[in-house]
């Protein structure tokens, strides 16, 4: 028995000594240096000489974050929107036209002498919206209400209102509508630029016409572009989150844990049409400014720098594409040779009337800040410029061959001026829905003409509706020669202010392939 205890004590003693030796050796090596671990191929902790850090006592575990206050303060500020598009009657009278039933014609069934074609049914879409003023102004997505003839808003307390459209902006997919009500609950604006990747956010919407639904997630990325519909004219600098969002959430609120509105939920990344992990919101820095413009002016006062730009990271990616056009490859290679920074928006070219070029910015400059706000890519530059109106002055900081330079730039609108653009119906540019430029001397020589203006871009408007395409050269309108965009705008403005029964123009011109065309365009609403 005594011998057995001796053996047990001996074993315990050996174990204790071994443990003490291991602890002592470990402490000695850690206190001495890390060279033993680094010299070998060991996978021990701190192989990369990272400093030791202790967790702060005031750190709060993510699972302890309380969303109840934010949820309770925002659900009543989100509405359901039902958008109804009435069935359009066909040119021959639609469903009122009687048609002969072939069976009846040959076999005499029914004795009715004909049958009615089934009536087309209205199309009904749904989405969400965010109340931003107590008197009933609501932000939503343009794609939620686009083409609708009737809008019905349902509040979280199930009250229903008819809504009227104040204005839309397809470029940012934002629309502003209004209901006739008072003392409505609102969601206050937050600062979307202060959002950080990893920060908790809530998506509040009304996807299935229930009461408002809340989901939680984190900010996955900022300044994200997703090329919606392939339209490169769209402004995309989305907040990306993993909060669950479904199609009916479009136009709903993205809020921070304080219950402040930081974005308008707009799109999801999905192959099925349902939520699959990522959703995207228009930052309130963009959406709020658009809504303010629509309320105040009826249309967006959009400022531009007058530059063509590429994200620094995209240049190397494009150079890696197989079968790249040799001329484009040469241009990209030249741009890359001038770039000394890893982030920013590289100026690849200028518009014809560019305030940035006039201020001294050069091709190959990388824009790295706007009024001190850091620019990581082209989307971020779009977001920053979208906050301003034509006539505003901004400080643009660029990196030029490794040196930082700052320029003061006065922003302009698409027409090259700083004047306020009036709402559609009052302004020819909005009615026509197109951008123009006078033909250069080189173009005149190549085309064999002495005057004319080129259609350089088309949005929703009368020209696009008439079938005019980009590149069309306008020569004559209502028997008047057109040499500048201003001449066309003055002529159209005159027609719009004239007899309401005689608001049309006849546009004559040709396409670069030599095909001549004449378009008769009714400018009446």
UniProtKB/TrEMBL annotation:
GO molecular function: peptidase activity
Keyword Chloroplast among record annotations: no
InterPro entries (alphabetical): PDZ, PDZ_sf, Pept_S1C_Do, Peptidase_S1_PA, Peptidase_S1C
UniProt KW keywords: Hydrolase, Protease, Repeat, Serine protease, Signal
Every PDZ domain range: 344-402
NCBIfam families linked to this entry: degP_htrA_DO
Family indicated by similarity: Belongs to the peptidase S1C family.
Protein name (database record): Do/DeqQ family serine protease
